[in-house]
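== Sequence, structure tokens ==
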Amino acid sequence: MMWTNSVLLTLAGVTHVASQSFQQTPVMGWNSYNQMSCSPNTQKITTTINSLSSRGFVDAGYKFFQIDCGWASRDGQRNATSGALKVDLNAFPGGLKPLSDLARSKGMKWTMYSDAGVRMCDPQAPSPVLGSLGHEAADADFFKTLNTEYVKYDNCYADGPAASQNAPKNARTDFVSRFGVMWKELQRVGIPGLLICQWGVPFSTSTGLQGPVQWTKGISTSFRLSDDITSGWASMFRIYNQAVHIAKSGLVGPGHIADADLLMVGNSGMTFDEQATHFAAWAMLKSALMISTDVPALSNELVAVLQNKDLIAINQDSAVKPVTLRQRWSGDRDLWAGDLANGDMAVLVVDISNTARTLSLQLSELDIASASIKDLWTGTTISGASLSKQVKAHGSLAIRLSNIRRSTATKPTYTFVSASTGSLSSGANTQSCSGCTSSNKVGNLGGSSNGRVTISNIRTSKATQTVLFDYINGQVDYMGGSNERVAAVSVNGGAAKTVSFPLSGYNWDKDVYKSYGVELSGFSTTGTNTITISGVGSAQQSPIHNMQLQHLIPAAFFSASALAATFNGFSDTACQRYDGTYIPVTAAQLQDLVVQEWATTDAVPEASRFLTTPDDKKKCPSNEDDTYRWVSLHDLGVLPYINTLHPWCIQIPQWEQGSQFPAGNGGAVAVVYYKDTDTYSLCRYLAAAQQDGYAGMCR
């Protein structure tokens, strides 16, 4: 299939760093909380240890046994001799050591729970159970006596023992210092693993808010990416949406695991198919897999889900690369995919329509021509370019691709369209944004006034296509909500499509989610088009007040009059590619490229208006992976965007000589491009130039 022109819209320090050998892959095991809350006891724990062994879970890899809250004394006293937390002898008359010994005799590893507050989390508020804050050394020493290898460290009562201080969700400045103390003490006594369980609450720094993926590395081996999971699909989906930006960040990996919380498989609230999808998602997101249910009561069917060897192998893959959301078809399905260490690919397709249906994967959606396709639910493998099967509501395709043959089809090219060129109405406005291209964005979409923006003069070659959005959604949802905001997007005034935009991070000024694909229909392939974005409100979903539109450089950057004057008299020219070849182009073709007039040079950064010496350099982010490459004046070239990403005119000689731009009597604005290996990227800096000099660029 030949693509010519598509559309890209834009909406939009840790001190203790140690060599980390623990948790090179996610932990697998069992935790008491979802089954027992804060009421474990010797009999329950003994039964569970024996059942995990007899039902094959230990052999399947579930080796970390963890008692959550409820093990410590409720009398508000510490051990008079050691100063450590005391065991609740009413629940555990023989203490915890015999249970640790039993678990270890069955091939498991013992893990403990405590809290980085003055009290532990507890259903009773205020909690009568002491936390570890201020007593980290004594408690670490006690944990070591139990042969502990891993500690879950919670975040209740950080500011005091009052009931109102139970579970603070406000942004905090003390996370690194407070959690870092326990990390240091655990390392001192030889306990290698720590899960920082601070529920995805933002860390407040001098440069803005950060999520746990950014600040926990070096003081833990894993972090909770979200608030607690509860029963039901909605809770699972909230965490699933919160994982989207973390998986995309590229910051997780061996020794730095994003924990999506305990598994709900075996508990009430989800259908069998929903539980299977939940397990597959946690496995492919490279979360810890901690069973938290009544193990003896598990059905054989659910045991088979939890012991699925293929999904466990993906979870334990040495690369520890989570699948990333490749595309969401809102209200229909999600497509996730991620590379494995041996070159295979893990793929998850999830029904989000909540209906029984045929669910399909087309490998072309992943730029793959063909592969061996293994259905991880059935174990069957086929060779081909697609897979379809019947699933129930919220069911999934869990797939492993091998023998992958990449597609050689021409990839679509995207035209950058600036939101600032759109028409803002009903309160939508331009706002500053340090993480956005051109340092601003369009916000206040939705709300009581239903703010909206309409982008015009869009040309494309396909009536139905994927439009790429950059956006910011920094609204973190905790026990409620879905960690997504929605927008109404319409093409050419047609019926609006409700589009889900998952959480993009914590910082409304910086955390831009780039190239989020949205399939839209109704485009004209012969004329110009409009796209209108506004908020959506309902009883379940608040209107979008802050879905952001970020400025990008327009693809057509000459005014029509300047372009006509520049190429006046040139009936045929040729523009040079970087590889030295030429592409024929006429003046008329160049003029046809103008789909948007850049009205003024006032928007051009002052520092970029004149490049006066050969050593002047600008730092240009790659459009592909956000890495940077320094480009000197010698690298810079100027040319209108010609139908594909390949042809650019040769550099203006005066630039290489350190002169100012060629003299002339115009004020056209040019966009600077550069080439990095085979990738052509749009430099985010503009340069003002005089139009008369452009005739010498093409020959």
Remarks:
- The chain has three domains: 1-12+319-552, 28-318, 560-697.
